[in-house]
Amino acid sequence: MPKKRISPGFKLFLLISPFMLLVFILSYFPLYGWAYAFFDYRPPLKLSQCDFVGLKWFEMLFRNPTQVKQLLKVMRNTFAMSGLGLLVSGLPIMFAIFLNEIKAPWYKKFVQTFTTLPNFISWVLVYSFAFSLFSNSGMVNNLAINLGLIDTPIKFLESDNHTWLKMCLWGVWKGLGWSAIMYLAAITGIDQELYEAARVDGAGRFRLMWHITLPGLLPTFSVLILLSVANFLSNGLDQYYVFQNAFNREHIQVLDLYVYNISVGGQNSYSPATALSILKSIISVTLLFVVNRLSKVTRGETIV
Amino acid sequence: MSTAKVIHRRKRTPGEICFNIINYSVFGLFTLICIFPFYYLIINTISANNLSANGLVNFYPKGIHFNNYIEILKLKGLSQAALISVLRTVIGTVLTVMVSAFLGFMFTQQKMWGRKFWYRFMIITMYFNAGLIPTFITIGLLLKLVNNFWVYIIPAIIQPFNVILVKTYLESLPSSIQEAAEIDGAGTLRIFFQVILPISGPILATIAIFSAVNQWNSFQDTLIYITDEKLHSLQYVLYKYINQANSLAMLIKNSTNLSNETMANLASQQTPTSVRMTVSVIVVIPILLVYPMFQRFFIKGIMIGSVKG
C-alpha cells in the first residue's frame, strides 16, 4: 500500500490551520450577515422565516424624508468629529517639536510620562473624571459658585452646547501625549549632521525647528493623515456612547453610535442597521484604496 | 566641555529665554491637566465622605481614612465584576501572547504551504470588517456567544498587529538559531517552545502589556454582547454607577449597617460620590501599576509596528 505523503510545507500549514479557521469565522464569515440587510429581520425569528425585501432598507435610507433627515444629521456629526480630529492632528507634531526643545532631561521625561498616561485609561474612566469635575455638583461648578463667579451650575455635560468641540477636546486630552511619541521617535531618527551644518550656516534655534525638525516629521505625518482619512467614518463607539445623554443626542450621534443605537442598543432595527454597516464598510474600503493609491503616487510607497 | 557651555550661554537671546519660559510653562500646565483628574479622585476617596460628597475636597485630602476601600467590597456585584475583569485580562492576555508568538513564528517559515496568502488573509482583517451588526449576528447569535464569558476572549485571541510585531522581531534575529536546532533534529513545535519562545521575551512582554490593558479597559463588548449581570465587567459596572446615582444610593443603604448612622460615622458613611470615585480608582490602579513597565516597552513596540504595519 503506497503511503500517502504530506509535504513538510503542508504540515506547517496544518499547524496554523485552526487559527486561520478562527480568522475566517470571526472576520470573513460575518460577511454572510450582510444578507440580513435584504430581509425584514426580527430577532427571535430565523432568517429563513423572515420576508425577503430586496433593497427596501437601502431605499428607505435615501428616500424616506425622516430617515434622510436623521441620516444627514448623523453624517454631519460624523464629518464634524472626524474633521475636527483632522484639524487637531497637527498638535502632536507641535507637541513633539516643542518638547524636543526642552533641554532638561528630567522635565522632558516627566512631561512625557504623565501626558501619555491618559491614553491608557478607558473612556468610561474619562467619563468618570468628566463627571467628577464638570457635573452640576462637580469640582468646577462648586469652585465657581463658592468664589461667586456664577449663581447656578453650568451644565457642561447635560447640554448640547459645543458638543463637537467638547468631544474633540476630550480626545486631545486623552491622546495628545501618546500621539506625540511617534513623532518624538521620528525626531531622534533625524540626521544630527543636518543640525550641525545648519548651525554652521548661522541658523538659530527657531530656524532649526522650522527648516529641519518639521520637514523631518512630514513623512510620518502624511502616513498618519492618510490613515485617518481612511478611517473618516469610524469614530468608534465608546467615547460617544459614554458621553451621550438625552440632551446632547442631536450632536453626539456619530455613525458608529447611531448604528448601535438603532439595533443592539434598543430599537432592534437590525436590518436597516446592517444596510448602514454595509455602506460604511464599502465606503471605508474605497477610501483606504484611494489613500493607498494617493500614497503610492505622492510618496512612492503604499501604506497598507 | 567648558567651551561648549560658554558658547551655549552666549547664544541665549532674550527671545530664547522668553521662549523657554513659555515652553516650560505650557508643558507644565498640560501635564498638570493630565494628572489632576487622577489626583482629584484619589484624594476624594481617602477624604471624609461627607466633605467629598459636598465638593469640599478640591486640592488636598481632608479627614483621611481608608474605609471606602474596605466598604466597597461589600457592594453586591462589584467583586463579581472585578473577578470577571481579572479573568478576562489574564486568560485573554495569555492566549493572545501564545497565539501571536506561534503565528508570528510560523509565518517566518519560508517553506510553509501558501505562506504569503495566509499571511495576507489574516492581515486584511485589520483594515476591513463586516461591520458591527453582521459581526454581532455571527458571534452573538450564530456562535451563541451572547451572555457567554468567552465572547471577551475568542474575538481577541488573534490580533494581526501582534503577529506582525513577533514576525518582524524574529526576522531581525539571525536564522542560524533555528538552523542549529533543526540540525539537532528538533521538530517545528519543539523549536517554537524551546528556542523561539525563550528568545522572544521583550516583544512578548510588549504584546502582553498592550493586550492586558486592552482587555482591562474594554467596554464595548460588554455593551453589545452581555446582558447577564453576572458577566458584567468592572468598566461596565463603573459606567452604570455613574449614571444611576439614585439606585446606587439604594444599593448602599442595603449593603451597609443602618444602626451605625450617627454623626460620628458620617465621615465614613458611603455616599454615591464615594462609591463612584472609589470604583474609579480601583479601575485605574492596575493601569497605574503596570504603567512604569510601558515606558520600557511601548516605544519599541510602536516603532516596529509603524515600520512594517
Brief write-up:
The complex is a heterodimer of chains A (304) and B (309). Chain A has 304 residues and is mainly α.
Outline the structure in words:
The complex is a heterodimer of chains A (304) and B (309). Chain A has 304 residues and is an all-alpha fold. Chain A has a single domain (46-299), classed as MetI-like (MetI-like fold). Helix content of chain A is 67%, strand content 0%. Chain A has 14 helices and no strands. Chain A has helices at residues 8-28, 56-63, 65-87, 91-100, 105-116, 123-134, 139-146, 163-188, 192-200, 205-230, 238-243, 249-252, 255-262, 270-299. In chain A, α3 (65-87) packs parallel to α8 (163-188), α5 (105-116) packs across α8 and α8 (163-188) packs across α10 (205-230). The two termini of chain A are 49 Å apart. The mean pLDDT of chain A is 88. By secondary structure, chain B is mainly alpha-helical. Chain B folds into 2 domains: 2-75 and 244-308, no CATH class; 78-230, Orthogonal Bundle (MetI-like fold). Chain B is 70% helix and 0% strand. Chain B has helices spanning 2-10, 14-45, 49-53, 67-71, 78-106, 115-123, 132-142, 154-157, 160-171, 176-183, 188-199, 201-217, 220-225, 234-243, 245-255, 272-308. In chain B, α12 (201-217) packs antiparallel against α16. Chain B is globular, with a radius of gyration of 26 Å.
**Which segments of chain B are poorly predicted (pLDDT under 50) over 5 or more consecutive residues?**
1-7, 305-309
Structure classification of chain A = mainly alpha
CATH superfamily caption of chain A = MetI-like
Helical content of chain B (DSSP H or I, runs of 4+): over 70%
Largest sheet of chain A: none
Mean pLDDT reading of chain A: 88
Strands of chain B, total number: 0
Low-pLDDT residue intervals, each spanning 5 or more residues of chain A: none
- Rg over C-alpha atoms of chain B, rounded to the nearest angstrom: 26 Å
| Share of helix of chain A, binned | 55-70%
